[in-house]
Fold each of these.
Amino acid sequence: MAMLEIKDLRASIEGSEILKGVDLSINPGEVHAIMGPNGSGKSTLAHVLTGRDGYEVTGGDALFEGQSILEMEPEERAAVGLFLAFQYPVEIPGVTMTTFLKEAVNSIRKARGEDDLDAMKFTKQLRERCKLLNISEDMMRRSVNTGFSGGEKKRAEVLQMAALEPKLAVLDETDSGLDIDALKTVSDGVNQLRSAERSMLVITHYQRLLNYIVPDHVHVMVNGRIAKSGGKDLALQLEEEGYAQFGENVAA
Amino acid sequence: MSESALQPFHEQYTALTNAGSLPGSALPWLTSLRERGMARFDELGFPTPRVEKWKYTNLRALERQVFHPATTMTATLGLDRVPSLIGEQAGHRAVFVNGRFRAEMSSLGRLPKGAKVMSFAQALEAEPNLLADEIDQIAEGQDDQPFYHLNCAFMEDGLVVHVAEGAKIEEPIEVVYLAAADDEALAYHPRHLIVAGKNSEATLVEHHVGLGEANTLANHVTEIRVEPGAKLHHYKMNAETDAAFHVSTLHARVQENAFYDSFTLTTGGQLTRNEPHVKLEGSYADARLNGAYLQRGKQHCDNTTLIEHAVPDTHCREIFKGALEGKGRAVFAGKLHVYPDAQRTDGNQLSRCLLLSNQAEIDTKPELEIYADDVVCSHGCTAGELEKDPLFYLRSRGIPYALARRMMVESFLAEVVQEITTEDLRQAFLDRVTDWLSRSDQ
């Protein structure tokens, strides 16, 4: 069974249709990339999958391990194993990273009927993960994303992904705002989380990120639909030829 | 104002004075103060919303209730342990039940030389001159404060703290005010005097709690003088029950180089009015007038504050933050008054409120009266719902709505509670916030 099965998904914002019938199937362990020009609906797809307010699903479905997630609350989606790395991580002054991660991990465990993670074990795991991502422990005592640099924010997103161990991670423009060193650190972090059970959906505007996080499948999204799918070479081809070739198709 | 609401107070006053049962009846200054107080209260009556300073706080519920004077000691009070914010290690604890000092529940510990902590009633016996010199002398602009005058008429007991020049009371003085009325509604009018002598230092923590079903009216008046170079930390937690009416009028004078640091958290009470007047009357006087409030159900909390910058080079910072649930209501009216020659005044005021339900209401009235030209004064005021983006962010990480909301409100309020400088006390106030939020019905 597919990890994620998106079928003819349609969604609007304030009455204007952004997703115009998206079909996509991701199997366990696969990494898929969605590329596309600005405004093609890539981020909207990420938001609709994670249940952000303000989007109206007007048709189709999204099945996570066979179960429709579109009616679920955002926290329920997280509990079944869906994770979104935000393009613009949100600052939450006054809530420390440690508290935030602990509450998140334990909330998900609780939703799954598991006991709270032992505090010692949690701290130990967090310390190891910080080290892998080149995150200072000092950052864990700071408020969530507050005053973080662009790179720190993105590393913090990957740290959260590592802590929550999702089945499917959606990475929304994780490369935006990163210099080459930060991009490499973040990508290394993501790659360490790749496994035969974990799937990823990498949304990006540029091919650059896909040099580091090498996808199994690449899809081109144009005007609210998947216009073309292929292997990792498709990304390189797009880098060379641009998205203009799809423009005509769209107009037609 | 209805005459009938004043009638019981008037009759009680006559009965108590005829019986000579109010303390200090042999002291002419006090008798005269009581007389003037009763007469002025008669003239003013309970303020109506037509009175500008009471525009947003309606006292009808208070006026409808007939309160009996809390003259009889509630000796049968079943209290295993006096609630405490700082735990058993508290060095100095004074306990008041319905406004009366209870020596057997109190433990004042060893105070440094020059520091006196006693009840008002004790002070009337032991230090009558101290009270004669200070009571009603520190207060200023009290003429239009009916509750002040009502307190003058009925004052019986309270807390008196006198710290002599240079003395430092290291441990906080915890003062527990317990409202306990089971059978009939009770009113009491505690009177407090705090004098922090030159270069002295003390920390005072007021903890107002309640027991019992019947309504109570606690009408506190506090006079404070922080003398040159002294530091007074004054923290207050209002955590009475829904049966409590709490009115607190405070007059503080802060002198040269002195620091008055105050924080008031209101979570309890049916109706609470905190009305501090702080006058910065010496150069480089510095004050913090901070607070937080959490109200739900039909609770109402009014913080009406006045800060006067009377001389050059004074500094004040005022931050009030709150969260309202259900039909909770709050008022913040903050007046900042800069006198004509109070150059180089530095005054900041900020009021922020979270409305957690669409029936909650905050009325805010910042007021800046500035008569000097070389000043830095700022004020800001916001009221709104919880922000959607952080809420979604937390939920997207698996944190359920109710917990996400609680985390956000807690962090919002923690920011102002952080202003409390004593760490143990700060934690006690944060715990109170957490406790209130965990009992959320939404």
Amino acid sequence: MIRHGMRPRRFTGPALPIIVLAASQVGHLLASELRAGPRTGAHGYVPALTTVALGIAGATVLAGVLAVAAAHVARTGPRAALLPGSRPRLLDVSAVLFALQFALFLAQETLEAAACGAALPDIAGLLLWGCLGQLPVALVAALAVRWLGARFDAAAEELSAAAGRALTPRPALAPAPAAPAARPARRPRPLVAAISQRGPPALLLRA
Amino acid sequence: MNLYLHAFGARYDLPISLALYLYAAAGVVVVSFVMVAIFASDRTGDRAVHYPRREAPFLLAIGRSPVFRAITGAIGVLGLLAIIVTGLFGSQTAVQNPSQYLTWIYFWAGLVILSGLVGNLWTLLNPWSAIYDLITRGGRPVPRLRLPDAVGVWPAAVAYLLFALLELASGVANRPVVIASLAILYSVVTVTGMLLFGRDRWLTSCEGFTVLFSIIGRFGPVESERDGEGRLTKVWLRPWGTGLLQRQRAGWDWVLFVILMLSSLAFDGIIATPAWQSFDQTLSPWVQGLGGLAEPVVRTFGMLLLIAAFLLIFVAFVRLMLFFGGARGEELVTVTAFALTLVPIALVYNAAHNYSYLTIQSQAIIPLLADPLGRGWHLLPTAGYQPSFALAGASTVWYMQIILIVIGHVVAVYLAHLRAGERFLSAQRALLSQYPMLVLMVLYTMTSLWILAQPITREG
């Protein structure tokens, strides 16, 4: 079994901006939908942006899942199971995702208000709607990131090991195998004893 | 609660834009950070959290005096009895019942602030420990059951959350009979718990107010030491706030408790804003099938949302601090230690938010002393007393709130910096780690002030 997590967060690091963008847009859409409907005013662009961001995030997740599948295929031999590596704490992942999503939400709301020439949204409203939209999405995204991240890290380890094996140059002439060590000579069994082990089963003889 | 606390007759017209006040307050916090970085950033290790203290034998003598203990215990028990008796048998109109003032103003707002100013008064006034001492005649019988250590202060955190929900979400906090009944129920649970699990074990793990006041009291200038049987052995005086630098058992239960303190106070402010009305109205159709429970459910949901958000934001910023600072020692110890540096913010926010409660509404109990049960009695010549607004004009309240909020955040910045010096690898890393904390403090200062400004100010 490979101890995964030795070089952790291969998935989380590069995928984080995409996941944060997609999750924040889903949260934004959720909050906008609950408030007034997203297709009105400054929020008109949110559904389209959410679709694009979710598409990219979906492709990233799919790529991750395919990498895990490839690692399973590449893994041969008796140790076929590919075990997930160490996972970061759910609280930590949720906290990072939520903080980034929330910051993005605040920036977007401020820009939307500026673009429409409206007054800046009030802090309490931003806090409440931001929490309502972003929190559940951050939790779901954190669960997904933890699950896939641990498996992807393990898969990446496995694939790089497999690639290393495939690319290692083999010697043109294999070295001659070492001569097997001479077995210790068996002591010959006495002839009578050998014969006595042949013949019909003892049960039949008794009959 | 239908007291006229957050409702002033006139709102204060700000001479300049509210945004300028917010930027100015944030500027003060930033400047204080620079000052701390210049004058206190060379202290690392245990030296960073070392603070001066002076032994106070006169306080030790007072604290040890059985007469003093009996008097303070009797005051606590009398307060509890007053809440129960007036709540059950007095007027059921909130503003005409002393139980409301005793619970929400004198205990919940006043005693918390006073404990922050002078030290943990709850150890003296706790009515349940006085009742327990009365039952056991001052002894410490061997507990029948043992509370596992893993319990931590989780039960106390739950008790605190339930009390905050009662105050802010239940919608029944202004019914004297409910408050009295819950006071009886809580008294029975607490005294039974102390008898079964031991006085100190129950109080320090399961009694929400004891844990709350133990945290708040760390801000105060009095520090004490007790022996194994709970007797005072030494008392010192120390600078305000430095008690929060003392070592503390690490645990998420403590972190959550501090976050609960902060977020419940913030929620108390938020529900007075128009944004909450809009939020509430938007969510109401989803829960209208619940009838009378709809409003409490939305409020509970809002409060839990805010608690979760505060916790996650705090954890995210602590992760950043750990990233920049490279903590030495166990991570959870660092997280817990930094959570305690937020206590000054909770304390000053409590004072700022309840300033008008304490200066105006607290006086309304004086005429009620003449007739506490609303039976037409004239026990004292106070029936015609009119509350004075001398200390609580809208502009006075606003400027007091600004001063308190800024002071609290500056103290928090200072404490966090000292703590960083202790926890992180070098003075340079400690300073680096505090930039995220500075951002958090600036954001929190501006948010707090904005929330506090809503009910009393109008932009000029």
